[in-house]
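Example 360, ligand nicotinamide-adenine-dinucleotide.
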Amino acid sequence: MNVFSHPDFDEHEKVLFGHDAESGLSAIIAVHNTNLGPALGGCRMWPYENDDEALRDVLRLSRGMTYKSALANLPLGGGKAVIIGNPREHKTPELLRAMGRLIESACGHYITAEDSGTSVPDLKIMAEETSFVAGIHEKHCLDGQTRSGDPSPSTAYGVFVGLKAAVQHRLGRTDLTGLKVAIQGVGNVGFRLAKHLKDAGAELWVTDIYDDMVQRCVNELGAAAVTAEEIFGLDVDVFAPCALGSVLNDDTIAQLKATVVAGAANNQLENDDRHGEQLRQRGILYAPDYAINSGGIIDVCYERLGNDDPDALNRHIETIHDTLMEIFTRSEQEQQPTHVVADAVAKERFTNPEKIHQAA
Ligand code: NAD
């Protein structure tokens, strides 16, 4: 296994390998860049086939967090952790406590949060061993109620804000009444996005691998159910991928009739260079994933900073609109795919920390 010469190494500041024989923990923490602040990123638990696969995933994800936080104007760097194992079989309180101790050993350079395979209760167990955990505290909502530390509602709101920006830019409309939107994946984020869209008057088509998730949208939101294959080729305005990565590829881009792609999933482009350009050539406006799905990291950053003002949080999430508008405009001026422009804007911010507007 190569680390320093790994194709995804990209000048990581720290890569920490941790093992605990008693609990069976094998984990990697990667800290990509801390120019703007401590590295915050989720802890993923996944049954990786081998150590190389885990290393590749953690390096790519942690680098992505540097770009996401910089673009969201947060005083945070980029980092991520992976636990090698099946969350349904290998997750035990002992293993989670061992992970907490590993995080503690990074002395605050890395702060963890939820990701695939870990949940608020899991993070609360890690927090017994370390204070470098976010996404666990109850927060106030605008209506005076409280909600759990799960940042998904903020991610969904940010995607809604970003989707509206993309529709305004590409279709020249601010009223979503009758806007046709196809959503792939109606889990924590996708379902909440569907609700925002329904409230704004949009018409919805949804798919999910679980029927009960689809039925919830049909019954509660009047959405139309379609199959996993049909979702790409629908005659709609917007395609919103909210399930899995690599969903924009040679096969799916060719089917798209939507002229806007705006959704929550991470790493949507199967091949950044080829598929970003393919979308641009086809006149499809792509809202770069890490720009539009940053509501969750904004949420956990506010929690970490001890700011429980839901108004301030929402205002920060709403800056996703301006960030995307800047990316869309520059993409047209420079004749570059939107993800290339997003990378450039983010890099300008984290390599010039003195210039960043630290809104939080
Ligand atoms: P989730 O697991 O709650 O929901 C994902 C849904 O997609 C599930 O219902 C699942 O059944 C469905 N799905 C999986 N494969 C599918 C397929 N091939 N076709 C159709 N549906 C499929 O996850 P989530 O928290 O809603 O996150 C959704 C996406 O957004 C993920 O890619 C995640 O990495 C990304 N994201 C989430 C957050 C957050 O705050 N939760 C933040 C940033 C990015």
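Summary: Residues 310-334 form the longest helix (25 residues).
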